[in-house]
């Protein structure tokens, strides 16, 4: 009997799971299309290219759609069982909620393992293919790739910039065109216009830019005898057409090696190797920076004023070094004896003209040191963020898979408590829980990327929050708690009102 019950539970669960997964994936794919629609329309792409891109995009959305589908389908199943009193009948027959859930627990573990394998082996390949295809699409039609306020270098020999752009008509406003094709001496040929329209010929060899209400500046090459003069020509126009020759904008497949080293295209083994290399490079750069500060900046030109430089060849000395006013040195000429030098005493005992020189030297050295420290801090911060991205990608492969299991232990007991099936209440509750999960995940991702918190803390924050909720809901469902029962809340309000009345009467007396 128990086998037939488990078969019935599995049969009732798999259908909604597939359906909700398809719906969630479709909604997320629509969001993807809406986000990138401006980069796809009007480019003359074949349906095979668009279909290939959507397949790769859908594969990348699977780790997000699968947990939502598990949450919604488990909530729907146990909501239906509770609504039709099937759960009550099973429990009255002596079958506990854990036994009812056992086949689905095994299935959820199996799905979590498949999700991990998908994230580790399939997802890097699909991400690689999608990014490479997107790169090719973006570089097929340059007139649609011009972003407002950003210099565009796609067309060889020209730099274009537009302050704003009408997304419906593709009309550009406040246009600047720098012609670097015939001159290698900077911005010697510049055209500015209030507005303009760009059109590419059908053979994609030329671009016609029709400009309105503008002016052009052309710097004429000066004579050898008059190098200090800068002859130029300035023309104003109401309408002008500029013809740009396009090369390399046909739809061609990019070399795959350009995208191989991206962290999104790597498995766990590849991420481990790459992150280890980045960490070693970061530690070496950090140690070299500290060593440079001590040997070059803190004791710069020390021998000019008779102070021997400390021996900092051993990197361990650098790690323990802390500069103070009283500096201890070892000098070989004095039988390696320690010499204690007080900086303030040396300064006070110096001649007035030497004091000014010392102040000037110290000021210049301090400014140079600050500049070096700022540059080094920015460089090390960039490297740390790059390391964080690799660690984030590593943790995501586990955390997203583990989320499938967590969402089952939230959806199944919550459905047994709510006792409402269909697409009404389960959809509302599922979306609400998923939004909470998504917000926590995005916050943890941002904090991990910026090194606000350790990467493992940020990437597992959503699991840390939702796992206790799943355990608590499972306990409440097992003990037949009236967590969402109207009668339970009505009784609680009634008891609370009675207590308030008694308290008021006691206070009046």
What layout of secondary structure does this protein have?
Blueprint: H1 2-40, H2 47-83, H3 86-92, H4 97-138, E1 158-165, E2 172-179, E3 189-200, E4 206-219, E5 232-245, H5 268-298, H6 315-320, E6 326-331, E7 337-342, H7 343-348, H8 352-418, H9 425-449, H10 455-459, H11 461-478, H12 486-508
Antiparallel strand pairs: 1-2, 2-3, 3-4, 4-5, 6-7
Give an overview in words.
It is built from 12 helices and 7 strands. The protein is 60% helix and 13% strand. The protein is extended and about 100 Å long. Helix 5 (268-298) packs antiparallel against helix 8. A hairpin with a 6-residue loop joins strand 1 and strand 2. The protein has a 5-stranded antiparallel beta sheet, with no helix packed on it. It has a two-stranded antiparallel sheet with strand order 6-7. The protein folds into 4 domains: 2-138 and 392-477, no CATH class; 144-245, no CATH class; 269-387, no CATH class; 479-509. The chain has 509 residues and is of the alpha+beta class. It has helices at residues 2-40, 47-83, 86-92, 97-138, 268-298, 315-320, 343-348, 352-418, 425-449, 455-459, 461-478, 486-508, and strands at 158-165, 172-179, 189-200, 206-219, 232-245, 326-331, 337-342.
């Amino acid at each position: 009997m128990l086998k037939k019950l488990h078969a019935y539970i599995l049969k009732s669960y798999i259908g909604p799971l597939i359906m909700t997964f398809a719906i969630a994936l479709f909604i997320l794919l629509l969001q993807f299309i809406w986000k990138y629609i401006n980069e796809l329309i009007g480019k003359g792409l074949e349906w095979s290219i668009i279909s290939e891109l959507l397949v790769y995009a859908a594969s990348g959305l699977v780790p997000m759609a699968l947990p939502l589908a598990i949450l919604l389908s488990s909530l729907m199943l146990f909501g239906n069982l509770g609504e039709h009193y099937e759960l009550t009948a099973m429990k009255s027959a002596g079958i506990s909620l854990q036994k009812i859930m056992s086949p689905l627990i095994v299935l959820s573990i199996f799905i979590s393992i498949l999700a991990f394998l998908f994230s580790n082996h399939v997802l890097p390949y699909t991400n690689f293919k999608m990014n490479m295809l997107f790169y090719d699409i973006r570089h097929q039609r340059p007139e649609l790739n011009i972003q407002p306020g950003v210099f565009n270098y796609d067309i060889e020999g020209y730099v274009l910039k537009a302050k704003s752009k009408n997304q419906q008509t593709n009309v550009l406003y406040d246009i600047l065109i720098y012609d670097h094709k015939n001159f290698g001496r900077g911005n010697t040929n510049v055209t500015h216009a209030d507005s303009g329209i760009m059109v590419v010929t059908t053979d994609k060899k030329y671009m016609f830019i029709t400009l309105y209400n503008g002016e052009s500046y052309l710097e004429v090459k000066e004579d050898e005898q008059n190098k200090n003069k800068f002859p130029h020509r300035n023309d104003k126009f109401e309408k002008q057409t500029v013809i740009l020759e396009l090369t390399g904008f046909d739809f061609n497949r990019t070399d795959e090696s350009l995208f191989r080293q991206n962290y999104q295209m790597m498995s766990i083994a590849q991420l481990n190797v790459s992150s280890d290399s980045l960490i070693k490079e970061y530690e070496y750069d950090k140690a070299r920076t500290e060593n440079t500060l001590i040997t070059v900046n803190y004791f710069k030109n020390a021998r000019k004023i008779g102070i021997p430089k400390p021996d900092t060849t051993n990197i361990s000395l650098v790690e323990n070094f802390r500069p103070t006013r009283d500096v201890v040195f070892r000098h070989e000429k004095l039988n390696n004896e320690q010499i204690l030098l007080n900086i303030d005493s040396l300064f006070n005992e110096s001649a007035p003209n030497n004091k000014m020189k010392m102040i000037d030297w110290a000021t210049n050295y301090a400014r140079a040191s600050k500049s070096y420290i700022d540059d080094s801090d920015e460089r090390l911060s960039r490297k740390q963020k790059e390391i964080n991205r690799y660690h984030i990608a590593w943790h995501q492969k586990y955390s997203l898979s583990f989320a499938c299991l967590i969402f089952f232990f939230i959806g199944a007991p919550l459905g047994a408590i709510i006792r409402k099936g269909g697409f009404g209440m389960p959809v509302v509750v599922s979306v609400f829980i998923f939004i909470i999960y998504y917000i926590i995940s995005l916050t943890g991702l941002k904090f991990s990327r910026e090194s606000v918190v350790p990467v493992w803390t940020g990437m597992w924050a959503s699991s840390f929050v939702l796992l206790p909720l799943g355990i608590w809901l499972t306990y409440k469902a097992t003990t037949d708690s009236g967590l969402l029962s109207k009668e339970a809340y009505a009784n609680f309000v009634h008891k609370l009102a009675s207590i308030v009345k008694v308290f008021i009467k006691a206070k009046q007396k």
